[in-house]
Amino acid sequence: MSGPGTRGRVTGPVVTGPVVTVTLNAALDVTYRVARLRAGTSHRVEEVLERAGGKGVNVAAVLHGSGVPVLATGLLAGEAGRRVRADLDARGVPHRFVDVPGETRRTLTVVEGAGGTGDATALNEPGPVVGPSDAARALDELAAVLRDARPAVVVVSGSLPPGLDEAVVARLLDVAAQLGAATVLDTGGRSLLRTLEGLHDAGAPGPDVVKPNRPELAELLAVARTGSSDEQGAEEATDESVAEGAGVALLRRLGARTVVVSSGGAGLTLHPVDGPPLTARLPQPLTGHPTGAGDAAVAALAAGLRAGAPWADVAADAVARSAAAVLRPVAGEVDPADVARLRGQVVLDGA
Amino acid sequence: MSGPGTRGRVTGPVVTGPVVTVTLNAALDVTYRVARLRAGTSHRVEEVLERAGGKGVNVAAVLHGSGVPVLATGLLAGEAGRRVRADLDARGVPHRFVDVPGETRRTLTVVEGAGGTGDATALNEPGPVVGPSDAARALDELAAVLRDARPAVVVVSGSLPPGLDEAVVARLLDVAAQLGAATVLDTGGRSLLRTLEGLHDAGAPGPDVVKPNRPELAELLAVARTGSSDEQGAEEATDESVAEGAGVALLRRLGARTVVVSSGGAGLTLHPVDGPPLTARLPQPLTGHPTGAGDAAVAALAAGLRAGAPWADVAADAVARSAAAVLRPVAGEVDPADVARLRGQVVLDGA
Predict the structure, then answer these.
(1) In this model, does residue B242 exceed pLDDT 60?
(2) Is A202 in CB contact (< 8 Å) with chain B?
(3) What is the CATH number of domain A19-26+56-102+129-349?
(4) Could you tell me the CA-to-CA distances from A275 to A266, A309, B344 in Å, in that order?
């Protein structure tokens, strides 16, 4: 089994550039602690915590915590954007975001009880509305950030703020590919489909790795079948019976190379561009805080691409980091000791 | 039955000064609209609305909407404070707030469905922590704002941010009284008790009007009885059987003059300093949005004090404005047409 390498350079000099994460809809993650959440009543918030968030920001934070050179970029706006930057500074995560007008969204998580043991309730704002001229300028500035960074790997994660469409994502992935960087795309089913179509229409190469989870793969199949991702269609297709093979085949037809399908606590299946699929899982799923587990897996994929690690190692590392993230209460954190311990427990099939 | 007049001036020149509202823990009221709130799940926020809030701000907005000269003051902090000011500017409400470090609290209301017909879920942040030296400076600046405004009536409403205690409220009420203004105090049971004790200890006159609602009166009695306002004690005493007379007598002993006890949809009882109690109510309670109803009643009390209206008129006006506020989805708004219509339906007893 070959390793991933970076685009067009299966052998060659060691890549020293950073992993650059692009978070177009970054967030200020706000956590409210309340005694108990009861819909329809009033609550005194006992504690307010704020933290830089968004999927790509979490990926960057996990990589930084593992000693992988990283640069977090994307779009920020207003006072919430200023606080995202301040938090990244405090955590030592290198960043270079582009400003847009408005206000970066807040993603509110309400946790219950002193230990935060209850289920978390999430309320996610849509994000700032980015107008056409701001979008064009921001795209130019982001492309310049990528060029300056000389990235080994570029990761584009998460949703888009209102007003931006997937053409922006396709353009950034194309710029990254032209710079010789490996590319990872982690967006929802409909957005993934549109981005791949955009790359295809532009004659640009597909991403080196895409990482849908099972519900996203199901949504993608539903959208491809019906041309719409109405919720009912997506819910029907999230049935376990969804043919993972059909989804992977669709992604391949659209230009994706390696496809990683994550299944939450059940582990993941890595479908390499150059070989048979590999599954990696823990003997039993962990309980904890699943938010950020997918981002930790993406961090492992990016680190593996950068190091040119064998696919089996990449898959095992992704499961270990994802599980380690479940053990931490906030997204964007893993304990290296947890990763090392869990890594030894990962069961690989197909390697 | 006499009217309220202003302190020491039962007859005299018409008072032309404004009503000054003091909101020490002003808020940025944020409303999230979601399809349906389910604790323990994730939600896409469909709409985010922001508005200047806090009880005294709502009082000022209602008075401004009725053409009563008003000045909103209190404490604001940070970016949320800047947005409170911007919203007051947009609504034309005169204001002069004092800045403190930190960040004004957000009070989040989650409403469900397109019509917002479901019960609202409120999540109230505690507010910025005000340190001793900032508190002293802010108090001086607020006293200067009061002196400059030459107020006819000063209304102090709502909670205190962490770090401020009731001595600040007592001091501001004392300054207001020295300026010849009538004073209205609308705070929770425990805070009301402490403020009255602070005025008493300082040898300062008690407020002209205090407006506990029934649960606040019950909390106050529980605190006075046990020396603590633990929730269980307060809940026990919110029983309808609470002796309103005992609460009013306690408030009088502590220096309060006219006491208005509001009972939500059941109306209110006004215990004038100079006569027998009056009850005012609608034939049947209205359903709608009770948030801000108490503030609309306080606005009516302040307007009545300023105009020297007879107590019976003041009580009827308070019920009409409070009910009109229930008909509006946001606090700090009443439709004058609703007020006029409802005013004609108010049933008065004891007048």
Answers:
(1) no
(2) no
(3) 3.40.1190.20
(4) 22, 15, 82
By percentage, how much of chain B surpasses pLDDT 90? 74
| Residue A16 pLDDT | 82
A37 interaction partners in chain B (CB closer than 8 Å): 39, 121
Q: How far is CA A123 from the centre of its chain?
A: 19
- 3-class DSSP state of A41: coil
Q: Which of residues 265-304 of A touch B (CB under 8 A)?
A: none
Distance of CA A343 to the CA centre of its chain: 21
Quote the CA–CA distance of B71 and B64 in Å, as a whole number: 9
A91 close to A52: Cβ distance less than 8 angstroms: yes
Q: How many residues does chain A have?
A: 351
Write out the two tokens for B341.
């219509």
Nearest CB to A121: which of B40, B79, B125?
A: B40
Given a cut of 80, whether residue A10 has pLDDT beyond it is no
Q: Which candidate in B31, B34, B36, B42 is best for mutational testing of the A interface (most A CBs within 10 A)? A: B42
pLDDT score, position A6? 47
User: B122 in contact with A at a CB cutoff of 8 Å?
Assistant: yes
Please give the Cα distance from B169 to B147 (Å, whole number).
Answer: 16
Interface test with A, best of B32, B50, B112, B121 (most A CBs within 10 A): B121
Q: Quick one: what percent of chain A has pLDDT higher than 70?
A: 89
What's the mean pLDDT in B185-208? 94
Q: What strands lie across the sheet with B19-23, from one edge to the other?
A: B98-99, B70-76, B19-23, B153-157, B182-186, B209-210, B258-262, B268-271, B278-281, B347-349
* Chain A residues with CB-CB distance to B41 below 8 A: 119, 121-122
Would the CB atoms of B119 and A39 count as touching at under 8 Å? Answer: yes
Contacts of A11 (CB under 8 A, 6+ apart): A5
More confident residue, B123 or B240: B123
Q: Are strands B27-34 and B47-53 parallel, antiparallel or unpaired?
A: antiparallel
Q: How far apart are CA B62 and CA B108, in angstroms?
A: 21
Cβ B163 vs Cβ B105: under 8 Å: no
CB atoms A40 and B119 under 8 Å: yes
DSSP string, B248-280: HHHHHHTT--EEEEE-GGG-EEEE-TTS--EEE
Q: Per the CB < 8 Å rule, is B43 touching A123?
A: yes
How high is the pLDDT of residue B330?
A: 80
Contact B342, B267 (CB under 8 A): no
Q: What's the pLDDT at B318?
A: 97
Of the pLDDT bands very low, low, confident and very high (cuts 50, 70, 90), residue A273 is very high
Domain boundaries, chain B: 20-349
ipTM of the complex: 0.82
Nearest Cβ partner for A119 among B32, B39, B43: B39
A303: tokens are 């680190």
Listed residue (B73, B283, B303) closest to B184, CA to CA: B303
Residue A245: how many CB atoms within 10 A of its CB?
Answer: 10
What is the C-alpha to C-alpha distance for residues A154 and A58, in angstroms, rounded to an integer?
14
pLDDT tens string A209-247: 999 998 889 888 888 887 654 444 444 444 544 578 899
CATH code for the structural domain at B20-349 = 3.40.1190.20
Sign of CA dihedral B158, B162, B164, B165: positive
